[in-house]
Write a structure and sequence with these properties.
globular
């Protein structure tokens, strides 16, 4: 099964067999405790263990690099700033902690179908039904939010191609205005489709 984001990689490893709930809980704990990581050698050890988990899941280094490629400039700037402002040890802690969190989140999505992640969130939200929270609507919003990521990316690519075809160069207005207009049209169409299927703003 391919996830909506196209990240999930089917497999039979131990990581693939762990339910989505414990994975999300571990990710939450790691994120909350990351502020207490102050030793560079400890961060590197955790990062090495995480890369071992990638190997255990049968996910190669090319996929790991692909997860980090969009933020290489941010990582380089962060490392350079901390070397200049504090020390290389602090630069290693901050930069590698960011890498650790990003790769851990990516490992969760790479080894867990999106539907399983959403089902886990819906189960967690379930007890809030007494407070008026509708878990099914929360799951629907998550699904729509995830679905909109590649949709907006596709729209941006189409607008960019049209921008180049018209010869308007790198004008941000020529890119942003049609992108926003087309995104709003898509949102209207999606809203009408949901209303047609009986999903609207009226309380259930």
């Amino acid at each position: 099964m391919q996830s909506t984001l196209g990240l999930y990689r089917p497999g039979t490893s131990a990581l693939h067999r762990i339910p989505a709930g414990p994975k999300l809980l571990a990710l939450l704990v790691l994120g909350a405790s990351s502020v207490f990581l102050t030793y560079w050698w400890l961060v590197l050890a955790l990062l090495a263990a995480l890369l071992g988990a990638y190997a255990l899941a049968g996910i190669g280094p090319r996929v790991v690099v692909r997860q980090l490629r969009p933020m290489l400039w941010l990582l380089a700037f962060t490392a350079a700033y901390h070397v200049w402002a504090t020390s290389w040890q602090r630069a290693v802690v901050v930069t590698c902690t960011i890498v650790l969190l990003v790769l851990t989140a990516a490992l969760v999505t790479l080894t867990t179908p999106t539907s399983a992640l959403i089902d886990a969130v819906v189960r967690v939200v379930g007890p809030l039904r007494r407070l008026g929270v509708d878990p099914d609507r929360v799951g629907l919003m998550l699904t729509l939010g995830i679905r909109c990521v590649p949709l907006v990316a596709d729209l941006a690519a189409q607008v960019r191609e049209a921008q180049l075809a018209r010869g308007v160069g790198t004008s941000w207005k020529a890119f942003a205005v049609p992108l926003v207009v087309r995104a709003l049209r898509e949102a209207d169409a999606m809203g009408e489709a949901l209303v047609a299927r009986g999903v609207d703003d009226e309380p259930s």
